[in-house]
Design a protein that fits this description.
The protein contains seven helices and seven strands; from the N terminus they run H-E-H-H-E-E-H-E-H-E-E-H-E-H. The chain is α/β, with parallel strands linked by helices and 227 residues long. Strand 4, helix 5 and strand 5 form a beta-alpha-beta unit.
């Protein structure tokens, strides 16, 4: 029998961070690039996931994450480009969490983030403008059963800049859906966070290779300032 080619998983001893750095350092790295108009989509920047001083479910990758999110959101508004903030929560009996809410049932479980609770609240460090679109979602992707797609269509957006957390969960799901809906997806590195650097960098690598442009946040700042 001829030897099969391309069926073996690579194991070369590199960490997820090292693989990410190698991918990003490739001068031949292909990009989708920016279109004509972007929207900043800030995913679940809520206390349940950002307040490491309050909740066990929170995490921090870059200590300036929210500062960067505020900066690019401010620049987008100044250029008349939309800014969107999502968060997750469920009704008291968690009946709207679906199968996602069945794996565990502790006070820290996803489905026990209730409307109006401290875990549901946006991080107070977030600079949210009255004209920004805000909504609560139920599932990983910000696009799933929310007003986002129609809102972006109305505003003639062709590029979605995705921030927030987690990199391996809701950020990734949103980036995959953004590509599926025909948007250029950009994920600024410093604006995303996860529980473990392995999850964070492995998913940034996969996003860059398949679904999005993973870039330093300065690339987004430079593009917005040049408009």
């Amino acid at each position: 029998m001829p030897e099969l080619i391309g069926t073996q998983m690579v194991e070369d001893g590199r960490t997820a961070r090292q693989i990410f750095e190698d991918v990003m350092g490739n001068p031949a790295r292909k990009k989708f690039g920016f279109g004509e108009k972007l929207a900043i989509v800030n995913v679940d920047v809520q206390q349940s996931y950002t307040r490491t001083d309050l909740f066990k479910t929170a995490y921090e990758t870059d200590p300036h994450q929210i500062d960067y999110i505020n900066r690019i959101s401010e620049l987008a508004r100044a250029k008349d480009m939309p800014v969107i903030w999502s968060r997750v929560a469920y009704k008291d009996d968690a009946g709207d969490a679906g199968v996602w809410g069945t794996r565990t049932d502790t006070e820290d479980s996803l489905q026990n983030i209730k409307y109006g609770s401290a875990r549901h609240e946006f991080d107070p460090r977030c600079d949210i403008n009255a004209d920004d679109l805000q909504f609560t979602k139920r599932m990983p992707s910000v696009f799933f059963e929310t007003p986002l797609a129609s809102y972006l269509t109305f505003h003639r957006v062709d590029t979605v800049v995705i921030t927030g957390g987690s990199t391996s969960g809701c950020v990734r799901a949103t980036a995959v859906d953004a590509l599926s809906y025909g948007y250029r997806a950009i994920v600024p590195i410093e604006t995303c966070a996860d529980k473990h650097e392995s999850y964070h960098f492995a998913n940034l690598t996969d996003l860059q290779l398949k679904y999005a442009d993973v870039e330093p946040v300065q690339v987004v700042i430079d593009w917005l300032e040049a408009r």
